[in-house]
Amino acid sequence: MKVTRYRVNEENEPYNNAQSDFNTCDLFMQNALPISQTSVFICLSLLLFLNLSCSKKGDGQILEVGQTIPILFDPDIFPPLDSFISEITVIPLETNDDCLLRELLQGVKVHQDLIYINNMNRELYVFDMNGKFIREIGGIGQGPGEFLYLHDFIFTREGTIELLDYQKIECYTLDGKYIETKRFNTIREDLHCNANSFCRSFSSGYYLWGGMMDGGNPQRHEKANLLYRLNGDMQIEAGFFDTKFGDAGNIDRFKYYQDRILFTLSSVDYNIYQIHPNDSLSIRYAFDFGKYGIKVDKNDDKKTVLSVSKNYVNTVLGYHEADHFFYFSFRYKTLSFNLLYSKATGQSYINSYWPAEKEEMRIYFADTIYKDQLLAIVQNSWLKMDLERMSPENIKKWGLEEFRKLDDEDNPVLILYKTKFISETETEDLISEMAKKSDKLYCSIS
Question: Which domain holds residue 233?
Fold first, then answer.
């Protein structure tokens, strides 16, 4: 089943890009409930025939609208860290009996200059940007405002915070007062979505991620999707992405930039997807790793693809975007890397996370972006181990000497990486200014 690729112009109207086509229906679009695949194809055909805008909701379609970005990657060559990072700031988090952080998973977000940390899916702690503990929100239990397992949390347009639990969402004020509980049912005979990440839709419902996590009924999994959209009544109205090559894991999947919600599939997929304000879905960026990227055939079985992918870039995750740059991490064979991309210059900067570059400071996997800085939460023992590896010159350059004395039993530290990237406008202004200086120099010589 072939569907012509579509792009979206400034008026958000689709127009035909006749240069290529893609098996979009088979790989990306699958409506799990309540209509069949045949019905989906009929609906999509009607939409294309009538040339409707992609603002149509509830049909599970994904339009390809993004640009392809080539990634110049050599696993043996990396630029010096100070060629794209200008400053590193380390902030120890307060340690006391009320806010002890255990093993770090994902789930660190910044909102209104406060840091919210999901502590082993059991507590949600709040710190300020100086590392001082402020409060805890919610807690383990079965009463009002309590949860069994803290999967994810988001901040809403109404100025509240919502926590994703098993088959329910707990709602609080930002200072931790319980408001209400919203329940949904996505674990039943015809599907199994034990959601581990979520976000608000732009209308009245939610998006849930986590298509199949139980490893049980194969027939049920044939209908499963990785992403579901709930309506205002907390009922599933659309499903996206079959589970063949996707990844049901990766907590804290959804990221926010301007008026878009961004996310990745992770496994053998090099696209950044976006949810638009009209709740339509599209591809924002498609990354091309050249000879290091795997080319997936939709007819390959999952076992074959995952086996072959071990020799290529096989995972793209942890995507974040700012005005000047975007960031993601990826894996190649058994190695892990961080990538920053300058929007102004179109240049990629890759840092080796594992193994780390000899004597050089590494970029830890970023949890979020704060004021155009990458922010990572790092165990004290990890940082101290890196300081043992690093050269004295690099330790002095980044001002890290004092952190050799960190206590392994204390709470972790926040590390902020300030980039050297500037905006496209600033780049144009800089070039213009250099041109003016060049003209003045030329006139004086003449």
Answer: 3-106+184-445
Q: What tens digit of pLDDT does each residue of 250-309 get?
A: 567 999 999 999 999 877 789 999 999 999 999 999 999 999 998 777 677 777 777 888
Residue 192 contacts residue 214 (beta carbons within 8 Å): yes
Whole-angstrom distance, CA of residue 254 vs CA of residue 201 = 11
Tell me the three state secondary structure of residue 348: strand
Ramachandran area for residue 333 (φ above 0: left; ψ -120 to 50: alpha; else beta) = left
The DSSP bridge pattern shows strands 62-70 and 281-288 to be parallel
Q: Is position 113 within any domain? A: no
* Pairwise CA distance, residues 12 & 14, whole Å: 7
Domain count, the chain: 1
Task: Count how many Cα atoms sit within 13 Å of the Cα of residue 331 in the half-sphere of its side chain.
Answer: 13
Asked if residue 148 is part of any domain, the answer here is no
Which neighbouring-strand residues pair with 111?
Answer: 114
* 3-state SS, residue 292: helix
Please identify every stretch of the chain with a pLDDT value under 50, giving residue numbers as ranges: 1-58, 213-216, 218, 441-446
Q: How far apart are CA 228 and CA 193, in angstroms?
A: 9
pTM of the model: 0.81
In-domain check, residue 133:
no
In a domain, 154, yes or no: no
Q: Whole-angstrom Cα distance, residue 250 to residue 207?
A: 15
Three-state SS for 151-201 is CEEEECCCCEEEEEECCEEEEEECCCCEEEEEECCCEECCEECCCCEEEEC
271 near 66, Cβ under 8 Å? yes
